[in-house]
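Mods, move this if it's the wrong board.
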Amino acid sequence: MKQWKLVAVPVGCLFVMVSLIHSQSAPNVDWPVVAGSPGGTRYSALKQINASNVNQLKVAWTYDVSDAPGTLETNPIEVNGVLYGYTNGQKVFAVNAATGKQIWLFDSGELGRGNNRGLSYWRGGSDERIFAGVREYVYSLDVKTGKPDPEFGDGGRIDFRADLRGGPAATTGALGHPPVIYKDLVIFAGRTSQVLPASPAPVRAYDARTGKLRWQFNTIPQPGEYGYDTWPKDAWTYMAGGVSWMGMALDERRGIIYVPTSNTVNNNIGRDRLGDNLFANSLLALDAATGKRIWHFQTVQHDVWDRDVVSPPALITVKRDGKDIDAVEIATKSGYVWLFDRTKGTPLFPIERKTYPPSAIPGEKLSETQPLPTRPAPFARQLLTADMLTQRTPEAHAAALARFNKMVSAGQFVPPSIGVDTILFPGFDGGGEWGGAAFDPDTGLLYINSNEMAWTYGLAASPKPGEVVSGKDIYETQCAACHGDRRTGAPPAIPSLVDIDKRLSAADLRSTILNGRGRMPGFPALPSNQIAAIISYVREGVESTVPIPADARPVPWDSQYRFTGFNKFLDIDGYPAVAPPWGTLNAINMNTGEYAWKIPLGEYPELAAKGIKNTGSENYGGPIVTAGGLVFIAATLYDNKFRAFDKTTGKLLWETILPFAGDATPATYEINGRQYIVVATSSGRPSPTQRNAGPAKAGGSYVAFALPDSPK
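Not the wrong board. Structure tokens:
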């Protein structure tokens, strides 16, 4: 018989004991899926941290993940008191979510080369697994030990290239988004090269226990499939793109998965893919059990502007005529929010078609019209005019104006030209980006961050068979599409190759070209002599020549023109050549389409020190919103700040400086009655003047915040 002993304690201690017992018995509230829920709303009902106490947040723990250079874009997940995520080098870890103490670490032996944004949790009976993508592999890991499940695929992993055209020997790629879990299915799509030859990356579902393929949906339709007639008849044998690299959303109750897709390859010339090119630049609603198409909407037809549906969908509920309507929201690089009925695919804000100019490139045929929603108004500016150029200094303005006067700036959907730069505004990195939007069901507000920088694009002629080409020519054909003709790239997303010899050896470069790195896919089909010529050119400036055989095997795709690169329109000091804001955070009422507020997001520390504040900056990673009345977002590249805003007014309530840039979406959860906010940070990104001071500090860590004491 259990004996009880009565002990006299002071009243204050009794209060503490009761409070402690209460906190320990409180149920945990998890963040079990990237974006917080299968529907991708990035919303939490937690409100222990709220507008009245958020300024008291302190660091609860940090977990160092500085095992390799690289960028963390991971939204970690938390299940049953354990937090799961990636290191810089894409090892998978599990830590105690209340203390940050490591439980296990899984090293695949493969150095991660893609920017992986999350992993997935699955439970089937007594089995619990973490599904994690590392490069071209998807692993099934035991949640308690981190060891691969030997019953899944080949010793615990599947190679997503195995079912692609050409197979592993001819294909490189990476899994950039977490798989979607639907019952006992693991659903995902990888990403592959943006330069032909390349493989498509269809949407596929695998058995969660065995790793066997259960269904596949071809985003580039094959003969007999819906949409096949929107391409040339043989395009499916060589075309690539239309991939879902940004992530998907799931309506568990209806069994519908919502799949956004990218543009096609090649990005900016489409003479070899005449037609609307379904299902590129689309939102697809698929039956999650079978992969069958339910409905789709294509936001850009025959895209030559790299206008991916870049933002993951969010499944939200809006009011129409006093009724609740289940809807799906997406945002695009052009700065528009689109809203559709979740089951029917009908637009919930009117969409109009506008007429745009034809291409002057012989043989190119663009769509005469493109669709645009009439509400909400775009959250990024749409047309760059001379009076919108930077006024930061007279010299910066004059130089920007001189360049501007040599370029074409006429708004959206202007065809690329040969030898003339055309302005894309907003640029290739947004409006909306891969961080996605957060939706608050309490207010009906959608929160989305935006980039507002101008980029330029153009075309140039490619070498022809029978010509002798230099390493520079090959670079321009194979590499300039991303790194630009001047090798300057578009940092931070696309690194500069200037002075690459000081950072990478010839062997490192060869490995990178063959296997890919970061967002860059590999080029395994590129001949070794061409790879050597590229390396000599970018490392030493040597233009060694390589003959293109006159009898070279003809390719089915257009090789006459090439894209001249993703080039930011910057001023003479490396800042955006347009007037601020360069980045914003927006709150949109999705019931009405009206804006509740709009504020600049981010700043450049050296400009702020001179009194030039609230400029906004490039930002990657998204917001979360809580029932505590707060919007949390890091995302800003150069100031390394993590901020909390009043979700109703946009007023800044709290900010702190992170050890590195927080280019990731935060997560929040509650353990034993204590709420935590955690964000991944990595690779501090230097602003233009900071870059001149030398390489930035490299590293990465997860940082968790909480109130100093549990609420009383």
